[in-house]
Amino acid sequence: MDFEIPFFFYHQGRRLATVSIELMRPVRNLGRVLDALESSGISVLGLTSWLPSGDSECVGFLMVVDTTGHGSDPGELVRKLSELPGVTNVRIWRSGIDGFAAMTPNGFPTFIGERVYVMPSVVFKSIYHALYRSHGKTLFVILYLAGKATGERAAELRSLFMDQEAEPLESLVAILKVLGPPLGVLRDVERLETNGDVTRLMVEDLADCVALRELSPRAPTGHFLRGFIEGFMRSLGEPVEVFETECINLGHPSCEFELKRTGVHS
Question: Which of 59, 88, 115 is the last residue of a domain?
Fold first, then answer.
């Protein structure tokens, strides 16, 4: 029996390991690390990251890898990776359980330096249901403000993972594709030809909307993502106002957001 859940991997009969690597200029150098692993016959099953303290130019990456096709000892792999540009520290360890590995530095999974909490969907829905029943549609304001603060934080960290020359919309699309739920699965991006200041995003499986669907709120419910987009884009000098024009809680098959520019790009 094989399984993969967030941060934990088990593949019976395979040799799995966890690789910790600290990397300068990750936008430029992460691809080289992944290419080196592939050329050594090593498959990357999962990857997360953190921010090493005291160095704003360095990012730590934690990977679960399948070393079954790699015949050499881990020490040789450490030496090979250490020779790559930008690599400052490499560690490899195994769990001691055949076929099992986890991405949990210091005993707790993280993403970009923040702890990650994984919960069953029934728990997530129960929290949302309780908040909606006690606060009503005031919950939408809370979710919007929380999303906006999160988007602003994501914009601060953008330079660690993306080309600084990338347009704000290009960066937003990249963030949505990487994170997925709870920010939803991005299915389509469209710039309206009739008005170059309007962009339309189609998103599926948005956690807020799915969690609230059983309560039939009969209103757009993707307010966390709406706030996230506004906070992220405004922080990058692209002031936009975001409207959820379609929502599964209005009977549509997916959620759709329109981004309208409200000022001059700075």
Answer: 115
The pLDDT score that the predictor gives to residue 96 is 74
Q: 95 and 125 in one domain? A: no
Number of domains forming the structure of the chain: 2
Residue 252: give the domain boundaries: 121-261
Question: Strand 100-102's sheet: what is its strand order?
Answer: 3-5, 8-10, 100-102
Phi, psi of 61 (to 5 degrees): -125, 140
In the chain the beta strands, taken as DSSP E runs, fall at: 3-5, 8-10, 16-24, 43-50, 58-66, 87-93, 100-102, 110-111, 114-115, 185-191, 198-204, 240-246, 255-261
Q: Which secondary structure element, helix H or strand E, spans residue 139, and what is its range?
A: helix 138-161
Q: Are residues 39 and 84 in contact, defined by beta-carbon separation less than 8 angstroms?
A: no
Burial tier of 211 (Cβ tally within 10 Å: 0-12, 13-18, 19+): buried
25: domain CATH number? 3.30.70.260
Whether residue 266 is contained in a domain is answered as: no
- Strands 3-5 and 8-10: what pairing? antiparallel
Band of residue 6 on the pLDDT scale cut at 50, 70, 90: low
- Give per-residue pLDDT as tens, 100-118: 887 765 555 556 556 666 6
pLDDT digits (tens, 9 = 90+) for 188-243: 888 765 555 889 999 998 988 999 999 988 999 999 999 999 999 999 999 999 99
In this structure, are 33 and 82 located in the same domain? Answer: yes
pTM of this prediction? 0.68
